[in-house]
Amino acid sequence: MVNRAELLAGTRPEVGNRILVTEKESFEGYQVMDYKGMVWGISMRSKDVVQDFFMGFKQFVGGELSSYTELSDESRQKALDRLLASARRIGANAVINFRFEIASSPYAGNAEVVAYGNAVVIKPIVNYVPMGGLGNLIAEFVDAYTGCKTNFEPTKTYIESPAGEVIENAGYKFVVCPKCKTKYKVDTDENGKPKINGLQDADNLEPGMQIYCLKCGTKFTIPEV
Predict the structure, then answer these.
(1) In terms of residue numbers, what domain contains 60?
(2) Which of 87, 98, 124, 216 could form a disulfide linkage to 12, CB 3.0–4.6 angstroms apart?
């Protein structure tokens, strides 16, 4: 299998002053360097009595409870802001295993939201190569085109055939089978390439034209004439 370290899929950017957040256990292309512990942010907000009164009518006539929607949105954002501030205070630059938890129903006129996760310090993996399905596809692609080499040099996919000897007789050129010495008359096509009437190139992968000797079955290359 190809050495994944040689496949330069690309180093991810530095985190900088940001706090990255994910609900997963890690970030693609980053390595967790330190665990800082649990962080959380809590927000409990309430609408005024007048808004509760009008929202009560919406429950009978239908429609979006816009005041409660805003309440939920504000509560989540405030809880998230406090979580990020908490992570920054303890020197983290990312939060993993992030979750929201609704502690009470906004239909009661208030919303309590808890945002929590694990604060960590992450750094980009140099020359990161994806693992799993995507990484396997990359590795298989490189295997197919480099023959499992990691220096990206093309590899031969054929066995090099011996070249036949070219001789001239009565103004005509012949190529001689290197094994049984059978002679084949050589012509040139419109591109100046050697050809033998009645025979096709036996190996499209190998450069030049190859034929199988009709007498002994040896595959050999027709030299340029």
Answers:
(1) 4-124
(2) 124
